[in-house]
Amino acid sequence: MADGPSTRYTRTSEGVYLAYQVTGDGPLDLVMPITGSTAVELIWDDPAFSRFLGRLASLARLITFDPRGFGSSGRLSSAAIPAVQAWPASVTGAGARSSTSTTKWWPGNWSASGADR
Fold first, then answer.
1. Under a CB-based contact definition with an 8 Å cutoff, are residues 32 and 20 in contact?
2. Residues of the domain holding 29
3. How far apart are CA 38 and CA 53, in angstroms?
4. Which of 7, 35, 36, 59 is deepest in the core (most CB within 10 A)?
5. Considering the entire predicted model, what is its pTM?
6. Looking at the domain assignment, is residue 2 inside a domain?
7. Pick from 3, 13, 6: which is nearest to 92 by CA?
């Protein structure tokens, strides 16, 4: 198992816990949601993915998080899982500097109105 950053938790405005990790220290916040069959605590166990994350963290302050209802974040009913466009509001409390030109989303740059491509 690779040593990754410690997992922290914050609460969304709805009171749901959000699991996140912060690594690196660059002028840019790079926000990467972790979805699917893993959680932020487990992404460092895969050597190739761990190297990839290490490279990203060498260029920016990398913020990885489990969206609401995924991984180690709070559980929601399937009807309550928010659209991907709602994620930026959750992540601002999770260590991301406010959504400014220095905050970028992987992949793409998500905003409240949708994906900016």
1. no
2. 8-116
3. 15
4. 7
5. 0.69
6. no
7. 13
